[in-house]
Design goal:
It contains 4 helices and 2 strands, in the order H-H-H-E-E-H. With 136 residues, the protein is mainly alpha-helical. Strands 1-2 form a two-stranded antiparallel ribbon. Helix 1 packs antiparallel against helix 2, helix 1 (2-33) runs parallel beside helix 4 (114-135) and helix 2 (37-76) packs antiparallel against helix 3 (85-97). The chain is elongated, with a radius of gyration of 22 Å.
Length: 136
């Protein structure tokens, strides 16, 4: 349910950040060639801010995945052998559910985590390189 609501939001955020990072990187390269250091600093601050926003946007999903794995480990290392059979079966069901970690997605199958930060960054740098080659 939450993922259905979050998918378009995260997709919009990630697409917008690719756009901002690409334009800021391209503008920094153009301003650097023109020796306009004041604008290079302004676009550098914009660039760093966009990367920080990207990391903050990816943090909840990474935390959710980590917590999901921790639940599985906590169930495994609990004193299950002392528990009643009914509770043991519930513990097994919980462990079976946590074998597949929970995560938030930006598209139907793309998890939003800290690996997404590198994917967005690489994509933005590819666009910057393409824009610089088109300009030259």
């Amino acid at each position: 349910m939450f993922n259905d609501v979050a998918q378009p939001i995260f997709f919009t955020i990630l697409s917008g950040l690719v756009f901002v990072l690409s334009l800021a990187g391209f503008s920094m390269a153009v301003m650097f060639k023109e020796n306009d250091l004041v604008n290079v600093v302004k676009f550098s601050i914009t660039y760093i801010g966009a990367i920080l926003i990207l990391m903050v946007a990816c943090y909840p999903s990474a935390r959710l995945t980590e917590t999901s794995k921790n639940i599985s480990m906590a169930c495994y290392f609990s004193d299950w052998y002392i528990m009643k059979p009914k509770l043991r079966s519930l513990l097994i069901l919980t462990m079976a559910r946590t074998l597949r970690p929970c995560y938030i997605t930006a598209c139907p199958s793309v998890p939003v985590d800290f690996n997404m930060v590198t994917v967005v960054f690489k994509t933005a740098m590819s666009y910057v390189a393409a824009l610089i080659s088109i300009q030259s």
